[in-house]
Amino acid sequence: MFTGIVEELGEVVYLTDAGGDSAVIAVRGPVVTSDARHGDSISVNGVCLTVIDNVDGVFTADVMGESLRRSSLGVLTAGSQVNLERAATVGSRLGGHLVQGHVDGVGRVVAREPADEWEVLRFSLPSELSRYVVEKGSITVDGVSLTVMAVTADTFDVGLIPTTLKLTVLGAKSVGDPVNLEVDIIAKYVEKMLGERLS
Quick check: 85 and 32 in contact, CB under 8 A? Predict the structure, then answer.
């Protein structure tokens, strides 16, 4: 479980095809690797990955086919910057919202509207996720917990403060770039429970 508060910008060292329906990724991140052990979870652009090795500030993780299909990890190359966050611990502050690191789908940057000190970004919204996204609700974009400013059937807007623009990959995204989306897990549970009651 994560909170969507990015701890550092990491750098992909390599993403190797492991043969078949999987890959291995190596990421440099001195903050998140400072106490990382084999089996720990680290969010990479919103995807929960399990540490298999940690040497000199670089951790490696297996990426299964499901993660490659559901996320944008497969487009990363050596040198790509990624958002990194260690798993939350019991008693830690919940600065964002409850984030699982289980990506629901991929959206794309539709528009960027700069203001004096902040920016509004518009993202495409896959139709199967639209019902879970509400104005003033939470959504995770590339591992960043954000508040939805506006939503339509196929897009949503968020506002990014200078800190988010500077310290996450969202500051460098261009129109057309893919992003990982995770909707609020509570909305999915509510839908399932209500559906079972009504049927």
Answer: yes
Could you list the residue range(s) of the whole structural domain that residue 23 is in? 8-86
* CA-only gyration radius of the chain, Å: 17
Collect all residues with Cβ–Cβ distance below 8 Å to 192 and sequence separation of at least 6.
none
Please write the tens of the pLDDT for every residue from 96-138.
888 999 999 999 999 999 988 899 999 999 999 999 999 999 9
Contact 168, 6 (CB under 8 A): yes
Is it the case that residue 95 has pLDDT exceeding 90? no
SS3 of residue 22 by DSSP: strand
Domain contains 96: no
DSSP 3-state assignment of 102? Answer: coil
Counting residues of the chain whose pLDDT is more than 90, the rounded percentage is: 79
For residues 130 and 161, membership in a common domain is answered with: yes
Kindly state the tokens that stand for 45: 């652009």
Task: Identify whether the C-beta of residue 58 lies closer than 8 Å to the C-beta of residue 43.
Answer: no
As for how many domains the chain has, the answer is 2
In sign, the C-alpha dihedral spanning 155, 67, 147, 120 is: negative
Of 150, 178, 146, the C-alpha closest to 164 is 146
DSSP track, 134-146: -TT-EEEETTEEE
